[in-house]
Amino acid sequence: MGSQPQPHPHPLPTDLTPVTPAGRDGLAALLDAPDRALIALDFDGTLADIVPDPEQARAHPGAVEALAALAPHTGALAVITGRPAAVAVRNGGFAGVPGLEHLVVLGHYGAERWDAVTGTVRAPAAHPGVEAVRAELPGFLDGIEAWRGSWVEEKGRAVAVHTRRAADPVTAFESLRVPLADLAARHGLIVEPGRLVLELRPPGVDKGVALTEHVRETGASHVLYAGDDLGDVAAYAAVEELRTEGVPGLLVCSGSEVPALADRADLVVEGPSGVVRLLTALATIAGGA
């Protein structure tokens, strides 16, 4: 009979402990060898609270400090977001922070890359369909009473239609799904749904592809991914696939508002404040290892 695994000498609080065997394996790998781990996190809803105006989103209090405390002990740290990389860096306050010298921000689902070493963004040419959709959307949204109050967010390599300001946000969201999918398809784009937002963006890039490529690039032997919305489902699938290849992974869900994510998570925490608590606890353990 084989020996039983021993508990880690620095266990996390009960409410920050994974509830699945795979998640516990991922956490154990991270705690045993943080210098070989990739810590990857979404921005909006995970490191930053969801706010009515996305331009006003900022990193949750303590988030940058927790990342800066954890990063020196980990193999790699990345923020993977649907936002332009430069916007996430600005709104997160990530640039020039001691401890985050090796942070990488993968924006537009991995189409853009910012790294703290150079402080610059690298990106391919923009998809022509985005400009075409951008020109059509204002007239497209006019004249339908159910869509009144919906508004367009400019995201550079994508555009997003938000419905949370509509009289009935859920009805507006649901009634826009098919028309926006048709509009996107005419211009070679896809629609990425989120919490009361529909984003029209180029195909072929998603957070799963970005995460897997970054794992390969960094040589990480285990990974933690934290997200909160439907755009993070692809990253969850990537971690689940990596597990089949022998790469332990821990899936964290920020909040429980999106069952498609929360039901697959190894650990559900109370929004960005819970993510900060988790990162802080990991930093404390890694620093004392």
Furnish the topology, listing elements before pairings.
Blueprint: H1 21-32, E1 37-41, H2 63-70, E2 76-80, H3 85-92, E3 103-107, E4 112-115, E5 120-122, H4 128-141, E6 151-154, E7 159-162, H5 169-186, E8 190-194, E9 197-201, H6 207-218, E10 222-227, H7 233-244, E11 249-254, H8 259-262, E12 267-269, H9 271-288
Parallel strand pairs: 1-2, 1-10, 2-3, 10-11, 11-12
Antiparallel strand pairs: 3-4, 4-5, 6-7, 7-9, 8-9
Can you walk me through this structure?
This protein has 289 residues and is of the alpha/beta class. It is 37% helix and 19% strand. It has helices spanning 21-32, 63-70, 85-92, 128-141, 169-186, 207-218, 233-244, 259-262, 271-288; strands at residues 37-41, 76-80, 103-107, 112-115, 120-122, 151-154, 159-162, 190-194, 197-201, 222-227, 249-254, 267-269. The strands form two sheets. An eight-stranded mixed sheet has the order 5-4-3-2-1-10-11-12, sandwiched between helices. Strands 6-7-9-8 form a four-stranded antiparallel sheet, covered by helices on one side. The longest helix has 18 residues, at 169-186. The chain is globular, with a radius of gyration of 19 Å. Mean pLDDT is 93; it is low at 1-6.
